[in-house]
Amino acid sequence: MSVWPAWEVRDEAGATAWFGVRLEFGDGARVDALAVVSEGCVSIEDVRAEPALSLDDLAALADWIEDPLFEACGIGVEPDGPELDGADAGPGRARQSWPRGVEGQWLVAQKYRAAQEQGVDPVLAVMSATGQDRRKSLRLIGQARDAGFLTRRRARP
Asked: CA-CA distance, 107 to 90, in Å (whole number)?
């Protein structure tokens, strides 16, 4: 995997930088992505893959490129709170302990709603609070919805 700076635009408010990301697999498959970093947030603007990615692979793309992209962008993944649980952590990565069950679901819902009120991405707020990746944070949000702490996204017939 390789990550390189593509270009940067500076204005009065700060800077926005774009990075190219390339993943090459042993079977000849290749994924190219364009990531943008603005105000400490990283998002993916464009993805091209040969052969095309399945929906599962597209969902896993963030997990594949997260650490190298953050390293290239100069964004460190730091836990928010003082309490760390080293048992869950992978090598070189400390992860906060997050309550399980109803208490954890309620806290996820609180973080989610607070982010919505502030006009920021609620999924990123939950990711930051829990120390989990996007997929696991979405799962926690879904559990909070199922527990009734958040409203349903769509009405079911």
From this structure: 24
The angle formed by the CA atoms of residues 67, 9 and 44, to the nearest 5 degrees, is: 35
User: Three-state DSSP class for 132?
Assistant: coil
Q: How far is CA 65 from the centre of its chain?
A: 10
Measuring CA to CA, how many Å separate 54 from each of 2, 13, 20, 133? 22, 38, 21, 20
Nearest Cα to 143, choosing from 91, 95, 130? 130
- pLDDT per residue as tens digits for the range 47-80: 998 888 888 787 777 777 777 777 776 665 544 4
And the tokens for 144?
A: 């909070």
Q: What is the pLDDT of residues 6-31, one digit of tens each?
A: 888 887 777 788 888 888 878 888 88
113, two tokens? 């709603």
Residue 26, number of CB atoms within 10 A of its CB: 5
**Rg over CA atoms, the chain:** 17
Say if residue 72 is exposed, middle or buried (CB neighbours under 10 Å; 0-12, 13-18, 19+).
buried
